[in-house]
Model the fold of this input.
Amino acid sequence: MCGIVGYVGSKQALPILIEGLKRLEYRGYDSAGIVLYEKLGLTAQKSAGKINRLEEILRGQHFDSSQGIAHTRWATHGEPTDVNAHPHFDCKNEIALVHNGIIENYRSLKALLEKQGHRIRTQTDTEILVHLIEEYYEGDLTEAVRAALSQVEGTYGIAVLAAGEPRKIVAARKGSPLVIGHGDCENFIASDVSAILAHTKRAVYLSEGEIATVTADNYEITTIDKLRRNPHIEEISWSLDQIEKSGYDHFMLKEIHEQPMTLRNAIRGRLNFDEGIPRLNGLNLQYEQLRNVERIIFAACGTSWHAALIGEYMIEEFARIPVEVEYASEFRYRSPILKEGTILFVISQSGETADTLAALREAKKKGLMVLGICNVVGSSIARETDGGVYIHAGPEIGVASTKAFTSQIMVLGLITVLLGRMRHLSVQQGMDLMGALERIPEQVEHILKNVEPQVKKIATLYDKTNNFLYLGRGINFPVALEGALKLKEVSYIHAEGYPAAEMKHGPIALIDEKMPVVVIALKDAVYDKVLSNIAEVKARNGQVIAIASEGDTEIADKVDHVIYIPHTSRIFSPLLAIIPLQLLAYHMAVMRGCHVDQPRNLAKSVTVE
Ligand code: G6P
Done:
C-alpha cells in the first residue's frame, strides 16, 4: 500500500532507490516516482505504471546525486496517472514529498491553502500536505513538517526533501510503517526492511507520531510534541536470499514451495513432548491466566481471517472455549460485548494492516488483553499487542498469501493444544496432537513433490473458465474460502467458497457442464455427506475436482479428477488440503498470463482503512 524509500550518503542514490523501490513493489504498483537532490536543486521523474517503466524513462539520463527519496503507489485519491504519481511538490518546486497513507481532512485543508494562493496541481490528498509544509517553512524543514502534521488528520508515512537544506531527509509516521536503516556514513528510510536489507541489517523502527531528521551520519528522532526519543537499533534477522526469487519464476511459487521449511520454523523449539504442552512464552501468560480465558475473539482480514476461522474450529473443539471470528474492519465499528475473561487475538502477516491495527487499538482502549499472531518482527501489531506468537515464515513477497497462511494455522494448532492442556486434554492427547503437527512439514513436502504435475494438467483444462465453486465442510470450509480467494486474487476468475451442504441453498443454480467445482472430500466424519454433495453436482453435469485422502479408491469414479493428500488428524487437515489449491490458483494464473506476484488492484500490506 505505497512504498517509500530514501537515501542520504556518499554513493549514487539512483540505483539504491530504484532497487529499493523494486523490493517494495509488492506494496503498490500503479505508478512510481523519484526525486534526487542535485547541485542545481531537486530533479524529479515520475510515471504511471510499474517501476520498470520508470527505470526505462531514467535509462540514459545522467544524474549526480547521493540523496533522494522515491515512491511506488497504490492509488487511493486520484487515478494512477503521471501527474498523480509521487513525489509531490510545493508551489515553488523546492519541497518534495512522498507519502503512504491518507490525509483525511485534505478537502478542508485544500480549500484553505487555495485561498492562501497555493496552486494545487493533482487530485491527490498528498499534495495538500506538501503545500501545508511550504506554508510553515522558514528554513527549518523539521519544524515545518512538525507544524504541518499537527494540522493533519489521517495516516501517514512520509519522507520530505527541501532544496534549501541539502544532506537532510525528514521522515515521519502515523499509522503507516517507516523504518530508518542505519548505515556507515549513510542512512536509509523505507516502508519496510526489505528495501534496505542489501545495505544494512541495522534498523530503527519509527513509532507512532515520531519525526526523524536524517542525515548521512546522524538521525534525530522527536515526537510531534518535540520530545526527544532515543533510537533503539534492532538487528534484522532476514537475509537477502529470503527476498530473492532464487530460481523460481514467481515469489508465489517460491513461497508455496518453502512451506515445509516455514512450517518447521513455526514449531521449532516449541514442542515440549515431555509435558505434552507447547512452549509459547511470547504470549506472556501464566498457566493460571490461560486457564481463566473464557472467550476468544479473533480479528483479521483476508487470508488471515480464513486462518482465524480454522482457529475457531480447532479451539472450540479441543479447548472448549467459545470463539468468535470478526472481520477487523467490522469489529471496530460494532459495539462488541467485551467482558472480563475475553482475549482478542489479532492475526496479521504484515502486522501493519490498518483495519486490524484499529481493531487492536479499539479493544485495548476497552481494557481487553490483546494478543497477536504475526509474521513481521517489529511491525506495529507486534509492538502494540500485549504478547503473541511469531509465525517465523520469513518475508512473504507474493501479494497472495500462501506460506503465512499455513504458518498461522500451525501456530493456531499450538495455541489450541496449549489451551486444551490447561483444561481437559491429557498429556498423551497433547503429545499426540503435537506429534501430528510435527509430521505436517514432511507431509506438505510429499504433496508438493507428488501433485504439482497433476495440478498443472488440471489447470490446462480449466484455464478458460469464468467461474469456480469451492466446497468444504467443517474445518475444511474455511479452506474452500481460501482456495476460492487464491484463485480470484491471482487469476481473476470469479470463485466462491461455500460450506458443501449450503450449495443446495443457492449456488446449485449455477451448476452446469461449464462449472468446475473443487470439493475437499477427506475421509472423516462428514465424508459420506460430502459424497452426497458431489453426487448433486454430478447430477447437474458439473465438473468435480476432489481433494481426497490417500487410499480412498471409492471416490475416483464419482468425480472428474482426484488429487490425493496424506492422512493427518482431522483438525490439522487444512494444512494439507490447502496446498493443491494454492498450486491450482498459481498455475491457472500463469496459464492465463496474469501477473501472479502483483495482481491488479491488490496490495500486500493494506495500510489504509
Ligand atoms: C491484503 C493481502 C492479503 C492479506 C490481507 C491481510 O489484502 O493482499 O494477502 O491476507 O491483506 O493482511 P495481513 O498482513 O494483515 O495478514
